[in-house]
Write a structure and sequence with these properties.
The complex is a heterodimer of chains A (154) and B (162). With 154 residues, chain A is an alpha/beta fold. Chain A contains 6 helices and 5 strands. In chain A, strands 1-5-4-2-3 form a 5-stranded parallel sheet. The relative contact order of chain A is 0.17. With 162 residues, chain B is mostly helical. Chain B has one domain. Helices cover 77% and strands 0% of the residues of chain B. Chain B is built from 6 helices and no strands. Chain B is elongated, with a radius of gyration of 19 Å. The chains are: A alpha/beta (154), B mainly alpha (162).
Chain lengths: 154, 162
């Protein structure tokens, strides 16, 4: 048992030495003691109390739920794969049944509205105020999506 | 030791070989990204909101190397039991952290957390997986004395040079 513990301690010591040396060799070594608390939250609509912008580089294509705020004809012509069509209407708020559908389909993950401005942002704010979830709007809309080299669905 | 008991020990140790290679590979695979991206791992550790701030970076820098060294040595069968002991201890720690996170109802998949690693959903399935890995490492600790690895070769070499 004593031998087991001594060997374990030697293994930990080897690992610590390797950790120390590799950290020294990094261009920007990580401080062994954190100087300031980590900001574990990203910008969150819940704390901001309104929909927030989302840059194309921060999109999680596999997980985010996309809502297309453009007209139905534009949606048909080309859309982000799997997007939900909810054309922005400046006169009426989004239909509550559709908001429920979006909330359910998003499954707690981010809802990203895209389309022409300011319609997409206004629809995102509307969805947020109707408690659809954590709603963002995509900066640059579909153009940013295409410029990033992502495919569209027709 | 009777020949029957010795035979049983040999069989148990032989069964331990694929198990220790598997768990070793799991730990090597788990360690590489953490070593490459220590800041991201530190952020994930912080997201669990369990470790005090002064320990977060120490943990984030040291743990992946312990995982890597243990994984490599376990596959090689060098100091097999000591490595299995450390891996079992780490698995126990992961299970405790995961259980506390689940009990607290930490929901990390809302998209509000800066760490995308921590955003991967945790649940009962992750806990069961960790228990399975703990069982594997405990088996290696109890039954694999490294006779089919570097430990066995060293023992033979020692005997031949005694």
């Amino acid at each position: 048992m004593k031998k087991l513990v001594i060997r374990s301690l030697i293994i930990v010591a080897i690992a610590l030495t390797a950790a120390f040396l590799t950290n020294l060799l990094r261009p920007e070594p990580l401080a062994w003691i954190a100087g300031a608390p980590y900001n574990i939250f990203s910008d969150c609509p819940e704390t901001a109390q309104h929909a927030l912008p989302l840059k194309i580089g921060n999109v999680e294509r596999e997980r985010d739920f996309f809502v297309d705020a453009r007209k139905a004809a534009q949606f048909e012509a080309g859309r982000i794969p799997g997007a939900f069509s909810l054309p922005y209407d400046s006169l009426f708020p989004a239909d509550a049944a559709k908001v429920d559908e979006i909330r359910e389909a998003a499954g707690g993950w981010r809802i990203v509205v895209y389309g022409d401005m300011p319609g997409a942002k206004l629809l995102a704010d509307d969805l947020f105020s109707q408690k659809a979830g954590n709603v963002y709007y995509l900066e640059g809309g579909l153009d940013a999506w295409l410029a990033a080299g992502y495919e569209v669905e027709k | 030791m009777t020949p029957k008991k010795e035979k049983l020990k040999t069989i148990l140790a032989a069964v331990g070989v694929p198990l220790r290679v598997y768990i070793g590979a799991v730990f090597i695979a788990a360690s590489l990204f953490k070593i490459y991206e220590p800041y991201q791992f530190a952020l994930s550790v912080a997201t669990y909101q369990m470790a005090p701030l002064p320990l977060i970076n120490i943990f984030a820098l040291a743990l992946p190397w312990v995982e890597l060294v243990c994984g490599v040595l376990l596959i090689a069968g060098f100091w097999t039991r000591a490595n299995a002991l450390l891996i079992s201890a780490m698995m126990l720690m992961f299970i405790c952290v995961l259980s506390v996170a689940l009990a607290r109802g930490l929901q990390m998949s809302c998209g509000c957390f800066a760490s995308q690693d921590a955003a991967d959903e945790i649940g009962v399935h992750t806990l069961l997986r960790d228990f399975a890995w703990l069982a594997v490492s405990l088996y290696v600790l109890l039954f694999d004395d490294g006779r089919f690895g570097a430990d066995g070769l060293l023992e033979k070499w020692r005997k031949s040079h005694a």
